[in-house]
TrEMBL record:
It holds the Pfam family Acetyltransf_1. One of its GO terms (biological process) is mitotic sister chromatid cohesion. It comes from Kryptolebias marmoratus. This is N-alpha-acetyltransferase 50. It catalyses: N-terminal L-methionyl-L-valyl-[protein] + acetyl-CoA = N-terminal N(alpha)-acetyl-L-methionyl-L-valyl-[protein] + CoA + H(+); N-terminal L-methionyl-L-threonyl-[protein] + acetyl-CoA = N-terminal N(alpha)-acetyl-L-methionyl-L-threonyl-[protein] + CoA + H(+); N-terminal L-methionyl-L-seryl-[protein] + acetyl-CoA = N-terminal N(alpha)-acetyl-L-methionyl-L-seryl-[protein] + CoA + H(+); N-terminal L-methionyl-L-leucyl-[protein] + acetyl-CoA = N-terminal N(alpha)-acetyl-L-methionyl-L-leucyl-[protein] + CoA + H(+). It is found in: Cytoplasm.
Length: 129
């Protein structure tokens, strides 16, 4: 199999049957049709989330008056934490009992800095000493 090349792309309605066949050959368990429907929906939601976050980040960066962006994520939501970390967000704090009606009730506060630590805020000049 020397010189073979494998490319992985997004799962779409056009190739979902290929994924199903690969899973049948590779994994010792079989997945029902709902699993594959969910795979397609999650993929679309991830694309939408990426577009929306990029849109917000672009607006904030173009505006130039924002130093940081903050958001809260439930501590058990690892996929959301990973998603935001790919965009440069970092966990800076954990708030106890942030949520009132869900468990776990704690939330991480994530921050993305829009300025480099050395850069002065927009409109301010750094004084020479």
């Amino acid at each position: 199999m020397k010189g073979s090349r494998i490319e992985l792309g997004d799962v779409t309605p056009h190739n979902i049957k290929q994924l199903k066949r690969l899973n049948q050959v590779i994994f010792p368990v079989s997945y029902n049709d709902k699993f594959y429907k969910d795979v397609l929906e999650v993929g679309e939601l991830a694309k939408l989330g990426t577009k929306m976050l990029n849109h917000v980040l672009n607006i904030c960066e173009k505006d130039g008056t924002f130093d940081n962006i903050y958001l809260h994520v439930q501590i058990s939501n690892e996929s959301a934490i990973d998603f935001y970390q790919k965009f440069g967000f970092e966990i800076i704090e954990t708030k106890k009992n942030y949520y009132k009606r869900i468990e776990p009730a704690d939330a991480h506060v994530l921050q993305k800095s829009l300025r480099s630590p050395c850069a002065p805020p927009s409109g301010e000049l750094q004084k020479a000493e």
